[in-house]
């Protein structure tokens, strides 16, 4: 809804044209900032009240003067500074207080107890326009006007003003963004891509530019990027190489929060996550493995151009994993000779890789569990043994070996247990075995009409601690 001097609310209709125009200006500007209709009416009405108070005669109280203080009026100069000599030293008094009396004269109370009273009233305008602080001021406090009701049209870079709706200080930045002190935090960033990054885009750290400014590009949650690289949500649109800001805590306004740009429908209160397939976008559906879950924001207001998000990136601990298998029959070529079990198929993995078919390699440090299963078959009736143990980086792990025994032709056995190993980035794990009779096979039975094929070997890797 848009208001005008002729189309206003009942309580303003009887006001002057100037006040009706003021109401329309402030109320419409509040709507453009994303405020509700009720908040806009409040802002416009409050602005009219302030303007009306400005036109009322000012009530000036005369300064209270102690009975023993001598009054001194200057009739030759607007101000007169009084000094006194004491033991050969000149003591220059300082101003302790100043205010206008009922007649409009400026009364200045000096540190030595004397008063200086201006001759004429014209000095009031002079001081109002010229007074300033120039040397090492120390203030007890600064009182802001909490009903100034500034709108976007009034903002200029460097302005510090009170935001009566959010109940906080606003600092206007050079790029047009407004920092709400105490309610939000920014990080200065630079667009490190060759394309424009839109306001509301989720960005990640990608390097460091000149003057130690973080470089950013769109975040994607497909598992290819560590969640720890997340920075925040852009508060303005950045062309390639442009410096701007990303919100890491607080509200991001004037963006599309309907979900239409990712084919979803969002409602107020929805939690949003970094999107697993569309860089820089958000989704209301929590990604699952092998994608990663990075909680980014919550929807505060739904809108195509005036939506509002509450941004607070939350990084959940990411634990890595992998499952690898083999459909090949594996046999020992010699007795009592160590051999590595091989896995030619990667079923699923994140942060764990199979190298040279036998080396399970970790990309991140942590404590890992290696759970294996072997399908063993005996091809003769003799008693025979298999020894199974673990190696890390080519070295046998102490006391990791176990022995299994098969007796009888065609006998099947499925040994399985786990090893817990601390790993560093680039470390590798191998599952080793040796036999005293080559008639032991790591077999891969084919599928039947009622069940799928059986892998000869499977290993499941799980990071169980960071």
Jot down its keywords.
Jelly Rolls; 466 residues; seven-stranded antiparallel beta sheet; five-stranded mixed barrel; 34 strands; mainly beta; 38% strand
Explain this structure to me?
- This protein is mostly beta strands.
- The protein is built from three helices and 34 strands.
- The strands form seven sheets. Strands 21, 23, 24, 27, 28, 29 and 32 form a seven-stranded antiparallel sheet that branches. A five-stranded mixed beta barrel has the order 10-12-11-13-14.
- Strand 11 and strand 12 form a beta hairpin.
- About 7% of the residues have low confidence.
Strand tally, please? 34
Largest sheet: 7 strands, antiparallel
Q: What top-tier CATH class of the largest domain fits best? A: Mainly Beta
The Cα radius of gyration reads 38 Å
Helix and strand arrangement:
Layout: H1 17-32, H2 37-54, E1 71-73, E2 84-86, E3 89-91, E4 95-100, E5 106-110, E6 115-117, H3 123-130, E7 160-163, E8 168-172, E9 178-180, E10 185-191, E11 202-208, E12 214-218, E13 230-234, E14 243-255, E15 271-274, E16 282-283, E17 294-301, E18 307-315, E19 321-326, E20 330-331, E21 339-340, E22 345-350, E23 352-355, E24 359-362, E25 366-374, E26 376-378, E27 383-392, E28 395-396, E29 402-407, E30 412-413, E31 416-423, E32 428-435, E33 440-442, E34 457-465
Parallel strand pairs: 1-6, 10-12
Antiparallel strand pairs: 2-3, 4-5, 5-6, 7-8, 8-9, 10-14, 11-12, 11-13, 13-14, 14-18, 15-16, 15-17, 17-18, 19-22, 19-34, 20-33, 21-32, 23-24, 24-32, 25-31, 25-34, 26-30, 26-33, 27-28, 27-29, 27-32
Helix pairs in contact: 1-2
């Amino acid at each position: 809804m848009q208001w005008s001097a002729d189309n206003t609310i009942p309580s303003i209709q009887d006001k002057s044209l100037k006040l009706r125009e003021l109401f329309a200006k402030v109320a419409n500007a509040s709507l453009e900032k994303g405020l509700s209709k009720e908040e806009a009416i409040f802002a416009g009405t409050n602005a009219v009240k302030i303007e009306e108070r400005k036109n009322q005669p000012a009530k000036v109280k005369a300064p209270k003067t102690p009975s023993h203080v001598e009054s001194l009026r200057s009739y030759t100069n607007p101000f007169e500074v009084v000094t006194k000599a004491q033991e050969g030293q000149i003591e220059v008094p300082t101003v302790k207080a100043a205010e206008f009396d009922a007649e409009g004269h400026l009364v200045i109370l000096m540190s030595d107890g004397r008063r200086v009273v201006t001759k004429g009233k014209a000095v009031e305008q002079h001081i109002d326009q010229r007074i300033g602080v120039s040397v090492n001021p120390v203030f007890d406090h600064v009182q802001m006007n909490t009903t100034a009701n500034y709108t976007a049209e009034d903002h200029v870079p460097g302005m510090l003003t009170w935001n009566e709706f959010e109940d906080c200080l606003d600092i206007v930045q050079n790029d047009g963004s407004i920092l709400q002190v105490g309610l939000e935090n920014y990080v200065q960033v630079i667009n490190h891509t060759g394309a424009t990054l839109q306001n509301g885009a989720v960005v990640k750290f990608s390097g460091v530019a000149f003057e130690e400014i973080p470089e950013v590009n769109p975040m994607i949650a497909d598992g290819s990027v560590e969640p720890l690289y997340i920075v925040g949500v852009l508060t303005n649109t950045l062309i390639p190489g442009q410096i701007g800001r990303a919100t890491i805590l607080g509200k991001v306004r004037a963006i599309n929060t309907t979900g239409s740009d990712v084919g979803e429908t969002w409602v107020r209160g929805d939690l949003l996550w970094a999107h697993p397939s569309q860089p820089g976008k958000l989704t209301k559906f929590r990604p699952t493995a092998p994608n990663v879950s990075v909680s980014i924001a919550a929807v505060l207001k739904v809108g195509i151009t005036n939506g509002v998000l509450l941004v607070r990136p939350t990084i959940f601990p990411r634990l890595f994993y992998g499952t690898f298998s083999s459909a090949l029959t594996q046999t020992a070529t010699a007795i009592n000779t160590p051999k590595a079990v091989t896995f030619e198929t990667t079923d699923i993995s994140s942060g764990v890789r199979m190298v040279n078919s036998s080396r399970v390699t970790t990309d991140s440090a942590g404590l890992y569990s290696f759970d294996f299963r072997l399908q063993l078959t005996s091809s003769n009736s003799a008693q025979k043994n298999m020894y199974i143990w673990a190696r890390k980086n080519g070295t046998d792990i102490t006391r990791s070996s176990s022995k299994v025994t098969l007796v009888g032709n065609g006998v099947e056995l499925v040994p399985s247990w786990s090893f817990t190993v601390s790993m560093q980035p680039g470390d590798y794990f191998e599952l080793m075995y040796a036999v005293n009779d080559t008639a032991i096979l790591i077999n891969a039975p084919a599928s039947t009409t009622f069940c799928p094929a059986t892998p000869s070997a499977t290993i499941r890797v799980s990071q169980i601690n960071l």
